[in-house]
Amino acid sequence: MPEGHSIHRLARQFNDVFAGQTVEVTSPQGRFSAGAQLLDGARVGDSFAHGKHLFVGFDNGLYLNVHLGIYGAWTFGGDEQFQGASSIGAPRRVGERELGADVQPAAYTGPPAPKATVRARLVSEHGWADLVGPTVCRTLTVDEVAQVRAKLGPDPLNDDADPTAFFTAVSKTSRPIGVVLMDQKVISGVGNIFRAESLFRQKIDPLRPAKSLSAEEQRGLWEDNKHLLKIGVRVGRIITTEPQDRPGIAETEAWPEHANYVYHRQGQPCPRCGSTIAVDEIAGRKLYWCPGCQV
DNA sequence: GCCCTATGTTAAA
DNA sequence: TTAACCTAGGGCT
User: Fold this and answer.
1) Distance CA A250, CA A78 (A)
2) Does pTM surpass 0.90?
3) Which of A18, A137, A155, A278 lies 20 to 30 Å from A220 when distance is taken between CA atoms?
């Protein structure tokens, strides 16, 4: 469920709390035991995200590569260094924030007993991280990391991303732009919410063939997804409404009914034109849009 | 308890 | 296009 912004926040969290630290790596659930053994006792290096893939470097040359899929989530705990994010990943409650406001216990005395579903656990001197429910959890060599990244489209959150690759891919296909935006080989990090919201904000019908988009529309989608993803990184939630569309409500305080224009708002009136927000299932995912604004 | 849902991806048919 | 995979919360009975 997390879209790209969550993974970039995770990379930052790993850099903040684990970089330079020697870690014990285990797999309480058992399904990552072999990989955990390869990383156990190594020192954590640089971590980064490419789209929805997280890469955590270790000083033995290996990387931990995690993709959360729909259900995956990381939970953190530890001493004062670990204050900040308590949980990043699949939201389990409406209005949940990635940034934990919870105050950690004053004295850190070690990690709690792991739940049986914990695929991977990292423990340093200062704290711990538990991973549950990932689609991907594996170790990769440097070359393998490059191979994985080569198959991914540019990530608007990465400074070295080349939007030209996105524009070219969009120009070449007659698949609906609403489907193409979800294709991680075309653009990385955009998920179901950013797709729906960016298409609404740019007033583009999701079913239009991608190749029918003008250069201006292509550019608009790239820039708006970058803009929205950056807000997501900053506040730890997906907020896509402009301030004037949620009067008096700060982006960090916006509840779901004020946070998005069309996502999960089917049957409600469009805040811009009053048309009824529509939903349909396309390529196995729910697609939300405003039939009045998006043409 | 049981059913539904979810910010995702891959493989098989 | 469908199924499979992975997990937990909420609403219901």
Assistant:
1) 30
2) yes
3) A278
Task: Specify if A155 maps to a domain.
Answer: no
Q: What DSSP character marks residue A251?
A: T
Q: How far is the CA of A110 from the C1' of B8 (A)?
A: 33
Domain that holds residue A54: 4-150
Active site (annotated) includes residue A281: no
Nucleotides on chain C that have an atom closer than 7 A to a protein CB are 1-10
Residues A14, A68 within the same domain? yes
Active-site annotation holds for A52: yes
H-state helical runs in chain A: 4-17, 33-39, 142-150, 163-172, 177-180, 192-201, 215-235, 256-259
Decide: CB of A111 under 7 A of nucleic strand C: no
Whether A263 is covered by a domain: the verdict is yes
pLDDT in tens, A142-169: 999 999 999 999 999 999 999 999 999 9
> Are A151 and A164 a contacting pair, CB within 8 Å?
no
Query: How far are the Cα atoms of A16, A28, A90, A212, A272 from residue A199, in angstroms, in the given order?
Result: 34, 42, 23, 14, 14
Q: How many structural domains compose chain A? A: 2
Check whether residue A52 has its CB closer than 7 Å to nucleic acid strand C: no
Closest residue (CA) to C1' of nucleotide C8 is: A92
In a domain, residue A158? The reply is: no
How far apart, in Å, are the Cα atoms of A280 and each of A198, A201, A202, A203, A227? Answer: 17, 19, 19, 18, 26
Which nucleotides of strand B are protein-proximal, with an atom < 7 A from a CB? 6-10
The CATH number linked to A238 is 1.10.8.50
